[in-house]
Each structure stands twice: as structure tokens, then as C-alpha cells.
């Protein structure tokens, strides 16, 4: 049985999920048997999930509660809390685990914080020391190289605020660990990609990559070529970043996710890469479509080449799994399975759709 943990929104986030869900496909019978098989762990709005690289431990961002929590596998389709939940920032919406399994990075949409947690040998989360709690919640800085005990957020918008407009708000949205050990995070509110170094005392800002005002960088993938592809929620683009010899990242190209995308109506969500690295997939909430983009050259640019129906309403997350694209439809309360062309990677027809409570994220079970 091919299995997945399913993140979702519960009543505190206007959804009907009762906790981390369990999704499965019967082996040998294909995606047509994909079905939601119940709740693996009761918890409020686990909107994003992340897997420990070695242990049967899953981390959940409890978005409505502003907390994070670890869960250990306790059965074929169940998880148990591995310690109590820990306070995060406002509307924590994304988690990333380091390749060595020693730290967790939480991105908080509501207040812009990026918070680092330690991970114990058993996979449990290590809370900040009590005397550092206030610093964790309120560390504000904008200077390169500044340290923050465990959590950090930017103090200022790099773009001038037009006369008569209200100041914008920082919205951290995702994180990814880079091969050199640094951490890249997006700030959707300030149109930034930040590069951090992890130090014994916490996170230190290495440098910032400023994208055009109003783009809204949301999620990222690190491509096998070494480039970083970033999808923007507001401008419907994919920016490709490259690292120079001095270690500083900078944009090298930008591409509209689809010629049919409508800015202000479509809002790209997840960005996923095919196993062979030749194709990127993003979902457009609004038109409820999936756009495929071909990676060109040495990975330094992408171009849209196919658009297909997602089979769901408000496709918040998707992943490529064994030649199929699985898509979580938050508003429709469904998960779809879309066939991918074996030769081109283009999304084809929706093979199957199953009901699921307000799904927001799909995570393969180890």
C-alpha cells in the first residue's frame, strides 16, 4: 500500500479536517484506488507537514494555533504526539528539516518570523530556553550578519512605499536548506529571498535577494543544476536564482508561469520538480489549473509549455509521485491524481479524485 500523510485545515481555520489525515493507494491497483482512510493524529489545523530524514517522525505546523509539534509513527496509519506543541509565530505555514535531522525551520506568515528549533536524538523538538522566549517572539533586525537567538524577522521593506499607501507587512512563507548548509527563505510580503547561516546562537542573515515589488515569492525548489527556482503568488512568475563564486544569490531569469495566467485572479501555490529535473509544475489557484514549465539551458531558465485542469478547487499543494501528479484541493475537499506524459512530462487527464477534509499538503509516508 502506497501511503501519504495529509495536512489540512480544521474548524479553527474554517475547514473540516480533524487532524493529520491518512491517504493511501492499494498496491498494484493504481491511482484509481486513492482514498482518504481516516485521521492519523487528532490535532488542530496541521496545514504543513515535514518528514525527519532518518526517523519515523513527522512535524506539523499548527497554523491557527501558531505552534509546531512532532509526531512519531505508532502504527500503519497512526501517529502519536512526540512531546507537547511548541509556540511558533503568527500563522506558521511552512516547515523545513535540515538534511542531518538536527534542526527545524518554521516560516510564519502572520508576523514574518523565521524560527529555528533544535531536534533531539529521538526526533522530538527542543524548545527555546525560557529566558529567550521573548527574544524568539520579537527579534527584529534588518542588518546583514545580525544574530537572533532562535527566531528572526526583517525590520523593514526594501521597496519604497508609494505616497498614500500603508506600509507593507513581512510574510515569511517557506524555507529550503541549500547544499552548502545555508538556508533560503521567502518573504511574500516584502518580495525577498533571504539567505541565512545557522550559528550556535541562532540564525544570522547572510544576504537578501530583492525581487520586484509586488511579486510575492512563495515557494521554492532547489534544482539539480544548482539553481533555485522561486514561484511568485502575486505576479504569476517563476524567478530563477543562481549563486556566484562569492556565494551571493541573484536572479538570472524570470518567466510567466503560463501565457493564460491572469494576475489578480490566479495565485500560484506549490512548485514541484520532476524526478529527471526537466519539468517544474505549479498550480494556479483561481483558474484551478496545473502549469508545466520546461527547464532549459543549464537550468538557468524555464518556459511554460503545457496547462491542464487540476481536477480540484483551490489547488494548494501538489507533488510528483511515480509518474502521477497528486493535487490537494483545499476548497473542494478533494485530492486528484493526474497522469503525466511519460515522454514530455506534461500533465494529462485527471485519472481519479477522492474526497478529503480541507487538504492543504500531501507528504509521502516513509
TrEMBL record:
Annotated transmembrane regions: none
Region (Disordered) residue spans: 147-170
Similarity annotation: Belongs to the cycloisomerase 2 family.
Protein's name according to its UniProt entry: Beta-propeller fold lactonase family protein
Organism: Microbacterium soli
Amino acid at each position: 500500500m502506497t501511503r501519504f500523510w495529509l495536512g489540512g485545515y480544521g474548524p479553527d481555520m474554517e475547514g473540516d479536517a480533524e487532524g493529520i489525515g491518512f491517504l493511501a493507494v492499494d498496491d498494484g491497483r493504481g491511482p484509481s484506488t486513492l482514498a482518504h482512510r481516516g485521521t492519523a493524529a487528532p490535532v488542530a489545523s496541521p496545514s504543513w507537514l515535514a518528514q525527519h530524514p532518518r526517523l519515523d517522525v513527522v512535524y506539523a505546523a499548527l497554523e491557527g494555533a501558531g505552534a509546531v509539534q512532532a509526531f512519531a509513527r505508532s502504527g500503519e496509519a497512526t501517529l502519536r504526539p512526540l512531546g507537547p506543541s511548541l509556540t511558533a509565530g503568527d500563522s506558521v505555514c511552512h516547515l523545513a528539516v535540515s538534511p542531518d535531522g538536527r534542526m527545524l525551520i518554521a516560516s510564519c506568515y502572520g508576523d514574518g518570523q523565521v524560527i529555528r528549533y533544535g531536534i533531539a536524538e529521538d526526533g522530538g523538538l527542543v524548545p527555546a530556553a525560557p529566558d529567550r522566549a521573548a527574544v524568539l517572539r520579537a527579534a527584529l533586525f534588518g542588518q546583514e550578519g545580525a544574530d537572533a537567538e532562535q527566531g528572526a524577522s526583517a525590520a523593514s521593506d526594501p521597496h519604497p512605499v508609494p505616497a498614500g499607501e500603508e506600509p507593507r507587512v513581512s510574510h515569511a512563507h517557506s524555507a529550503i536548506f541549500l547544499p552548502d548548509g545555508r538556508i533560503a527563505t521567502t518573504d511574500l510580503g516584502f518580495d525577498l529571498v533571504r539567505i541565512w547561516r545557522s550559528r550556535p546562537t541562532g540564525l544570522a542573515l547572510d544576504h537578501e535577494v530583492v525581487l520586484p515589488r509586488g511579486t510575492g515569492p512563495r515557494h521554492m525548489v532547489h534544482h539539480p543544476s544548482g539553481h533555485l527556482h522561486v514561484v511568485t503568488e502575486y505576479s504569476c512568475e517563476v524567478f530563477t536564482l543562481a549563486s556566484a563564486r562569492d556565494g551571493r544569490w541573484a536572479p538570472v531569469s524570470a518567466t510567466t508561469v503560463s501565457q493564460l495566467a491572469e494576475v489578480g485572479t490566479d495565485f500560484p501555490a506549490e512548485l514541484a520538480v520532476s524526478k529527471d529535473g526537466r519539468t517544474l509544475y505549479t498550480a494556479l489557484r483561481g483558474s484551478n489549473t496545473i502549469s508545466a514549465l520546461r527547464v532549459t539551458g543549464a537550468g538557468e531558465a524555464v518556459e511554460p509549455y503545457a496547462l491542464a485542469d487540476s481536477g480540484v478547487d483551490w489547488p494548494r499543494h501538489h507533488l510528483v509521485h511515480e509518474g502521477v501528479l497528486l493535487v490537494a484541493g483545499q476548497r473542494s475537499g478533494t485530492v486528484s491524481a493526474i497522469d503525466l506524459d511519460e515522454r514530455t512530462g506534461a500533465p494529462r487527464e485527471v485519472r481519479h479524485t477522492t474526497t478529503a477534509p480541507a487538504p492543504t499538503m500531501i507528504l509521502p509516508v516513509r
